[in-house]
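Bench notes, afternoon.
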Amino acid sequence: MFGDRIGSVEVLAVVLIALVIFRDQVASALSAPALAAWTTVFVSVLVQAMPFLVFGVALSAVIAVYVPRSFWAKALPRHPALAVPVASVAGVVLPGCECGAVPIAGSLIRRGVTPAAALAFLLAAPAINPIVLTATVVAFPNNPEMAVARGAAGLVVAMIMGWLWTRLGKQEWIKLPRRPDLENVSKARAFWTSMRHDIIHAGGFLVVGAAAAAFINVVIPEKWMLTLAENEVLAILALAILAVLLSICSEADAFVAASLSQFSLTSRLVFLTVGPMVDLKLISMQSGVFGRRFAARFAPATFVVAVIMAVVIGFIMVEMTGKGA
């Protein structure tokens, strides 16, 4: 009946009208404690992540429109094995979180950067940038070695995953979404077209990941945490999985880890290493930007490598400092 005239504006209008009609029922449902907790976590994840997502998308658009392809050929070594550590170290200069790094990595691949280097940058940027490391120092004032250990673990994991991709990765696993043609328009219009496309595409998956993280936060009983902390192996696995489920932005996760004082430093280092590299919202965004086949392989492999390296570096840190908690 409406032909092609039904779009997002019409759908939004229908939703708003429904909210007005059923406002009493909606208000009653939102007052439930569980739903209130879900809403709080959902909004907090979005509020934490969205500014960095916008920053990352904007930087991605700049790379796509204003940076010539020849720049990357000169900036990075041609051999993928050498390009990986260079790209990993480059993550130090980006003050952003994993939400912003995903679209940037996708844009780097589009501009001709080898996937191994782009993926190493994707993992390193949210884990070792100055803001994250500074936040870790502030969160652990009595344990400054945590920031050093976090930076080392993040850098090592990024390089290992980049090198693994050079040996085992396949180009067909990466399926970047089709973007609008940017070649025959002005740079300003191409910039806004690219940014609008990426923010809608990546933002949708961010919402899905935030909703899943909020659901997990409501479901997991707090008393389980105390029981798990008593066993070091279980504590490490629990905090690794918790980092995936909570989906906390890397700029804020250090303060959450510091609050888990019942756990050892090593297990909390695992939490800080895994979180910026593998979490629900990040997996969702990787699926949207690189494809499901990529995320199904890359995320589990990153999780295993991150846990192992965090435990190794955490053990060395504990042995050298003599502090286990």
